[in-house]
Amino acid sequence: MTIDREHVRQGLVFLAVGGASALIDAGVFWLLVTLGVWPTLASVISFLTAFVVNYRGNRDLVFRARASKGALVRYSILVVVNLGLSAGGVALGTEVIGLAPIVAKVATMVLVAVINFFVMRLWVFRHGGAAAESAPSTGTASRG
After folding, report:
1. Domain ranges across the chain
2. Percent of the chain with pLDDT over 70
3. Who is most buried in 83, 95, 115, 121, counting CB within 10 A?
4. What is the pTM assigned to this prediction?
């Protein structure tokens, strides 16, 4: 497999979208807690805000996919799987391997991010990318 410019572009934009989503999650959380919102509720609100940004950023910017209910459902399933992988990875790292919690968390985040890139590319947004880019633009909204 050769790495072409589109794969490099996707990887770099994927990292940027993920970074922006993380900053939004943390920033909204901090703001809400500072305003006196219960931390658990603040976490839910900040997560959902980042969820929207991450979904749209990956769909529109990284994979250039059309909007579809199927992609949103697949993305939502992936988020639930990510939660399990994240919790499981931290538990494995801390309780079985004996890593410091932050080391286990960061290692899990990196692994999950790599898995996410390929799962999004091959399953969640499978109709995006080069095929969507080569299609002529009609200037109308896509339906999916």
Report:
1. 1-62, 67-130
2. 87
3. 121
4. 0.75
